[in-house]
Amino acid sequence: MGNLKLTNVTKAFGALTVLHGIDLTIDDGKFVVFVGPSGCGKSTLLRIIAGLEDISAGGIEIGGRDVVQLSPAERKIAMVFQSYALYPHMSVRKNLAFGLENLKFKRGEIDTRIAEAARMLAIEPYLERKPRQLSGGQRQRVAIGRAIVRNPDIFLFDEPLSNLDAALRVQTRAEITRLHRQLKTTMIYVTHDQVEAMTMADEIVVLNGGRIEQVGTPLELFDNPRNLFVAGFLGSPRMNMLKGKVMAVGEAGVTIDVGYGAPLAASIDPAAAKPGQAVLVGIRPAHFAVGDEGLPFVVQYHESLGTETYVYGTLEGRDEQIIVHQTGHFAPRSGDLLRIMPLSGRVHVFDPDNGLALPQTVSQRSDAYEHA
Amino acid sequence: MSTPKATDLGGRALDFVMGIVEAPINGFERLMGRKRMPYLFLAPNLILFGIFTFLPIAIAVGYAFTGGTGLFVSDRPFVGFDNFRQLLQCEDYLRPGSCRESLFWTAVWNTLWFVGFNVAATLLVALVTALILNRAIAARGFFRAMFFYPVLLSPVVIGLIWKWFLDRNGLLNAFLQMLGVPPEIFLLDVGWSRFFVVVVSVWFHMGFYTLILLAGLQAIPKDLYEAAAIDAASPRRTLFRITLPLLGPNLLVVLILLMIRSVQIFDEAWVLTNGGGPGTANSFIVQYIYQMAFGSDLRLFGLASAASVLMGLVLLALTLIQLRLGRKMES
Predict the structure, then answer these.
(1) What is the pLDDT of residues A38-69, one digit of tens each?
(2) A19: closest CA among A56, A70, A60?
(3) Partners of residue A77 in chain B, C-beta under 8 Å
(4) Quick check: A196 and A160 in contact, CB under 8 A?
(5) Which of B229, B237, B241 is opposite residue A52, by nearest beta carbon?
(6) Domain limits of chain B?
(7) Nearest-CA residue of chain B relative to A155?
(8) Is CATH 3.40.440.10 the right assignment for the domain spanning B85-330?
(9) Does residue A305 sit in helix, strand or coil?
């Protein structure tokens, strides 16, 4: 069984604590992505699960078994490294066989498993080649193959796509997802690329400064970020932030003044806000409608990607950059004044003091609106 | 060619030097053309190399075909292959006594035995030391320095130190006596003296080879060991299946350098054994060459040169094997 339970996992290098009491449960068969900025501790956490790093405190269970004292080999995990870490002096076949030989598997069983993994990953033609005779993408597949033949309870991936070019990355991303559907084995995947996180994960764990900021499905995190960090980290371009003040608190939510005489409505739990309270209002670029009324937006420049357009500018008289996303062709000129209005139900409100999101009356859901 | 204006002292010193060499270098470049400039920079080294390496080789090859005791070529009669015939004439090469130049063949066999034991022992000790120093042990830098320091000493100093240590009244005997073991005259016993010639050579040179192997070990990516740990490889299998194969090129370099330098054994052994003793037990090829040419007024420059040429050919063969194997490993 490939379920994983981390309890209060703490890791310190000397005086520097890099993981502060991580609690996390991952169910069997899930594809979980650890995402966060450089130095957030995501790779360290993965290496701790693998047994390549010791923990300073806490507990780790894999399949209900306490594995803290077990070596990497005894944990029934397999890992795909960022650098692939293929043995350069061995052929692809020997790279795949090495782990099984160490575990004293019978020759016939080794050959069967290699043949199966090679077919699954389409690396049969390269089995007798050395790693240096392969392209980056082929090496990547061999590295995954080496993990597959072990038939582990958990697959660990440490930024496996970061050495591939953009096109190959998209392709390999899809392949890993397909592999997960086929194998139905727990996979833990570390990346700093939020697109990988959003597209591949059943569940995303957002890490920052050695702490878990939020755990949830990609859309849960996108729609209901728990704090300013998650709101800013997921979604590209990042969420726009406006300073505002709570004007009125009603049963259905609150109204917030961000200036310009255009109050914004937000579905915030009335108990969580009081009139006069300073707040930060977060609105994703795609959640603005351009129309006849709303906030005055002065265009600086725009980027046309064909199917979509990003317009960069500021609110009239202010300095903070605001990005507005529009589908299709849209070509405002620099200096144009547009009126932009947040879509109803797409306004996030944060407490500027602690960065936490104010609780919503109803969870925002992606399927609750049609435009974005 | 202009140099950027530097404000720091080093920069100013560089400006000063560049100011001096700029004009002549520009002049040479106009004279020779840019394409031939590299040869200008190589010339000083090539000239030194020519005078002190290539020219002596040519002289030695020439002398190998001459006889007599004269120092200058003009005083030496041409004798063809006589010197080589004298060296190689033998009833049974395994019995130096049956050879015309028995001393030469004694030296050849002594050298071969020395090379065998010395190469094996030094390689093993250097490898084990490098493997230990590559681990995260306490005071690693200190130990690395300790093992390297003997390399910096002069061979004669090494020979003298060990002689004091091994003498009849030396440190080792004093220590043995303390333990109640009767003293041994190590350097007058054939077995012990040969053993200690190897020990001293290993102690003297291992630091250098350890350094080469350590560099090789550190070039092996750490994640290969992590992959091996996840692949359930035992420490033994990790050593034999990962570390040693990946250290192959460095091991080859060490092996060949070690063989070449072992064949050339002379100075420290000469001092330690008082000129190859006891008897001819530690008489090696270079010692034979030295003795024929410069020892006790023999002045047999022709014979010594012929022996040098033969030894040079063996070393050349070893070097070619190294190059061949090195290329094979690369491909």
Answers:
(1) 989 999 999 999 999 999 999 999 999 999 99
(2) A56
(3) 230
(4) no
(5) B229
(6) 85-330
(7) B230
(8) no
(9) coil
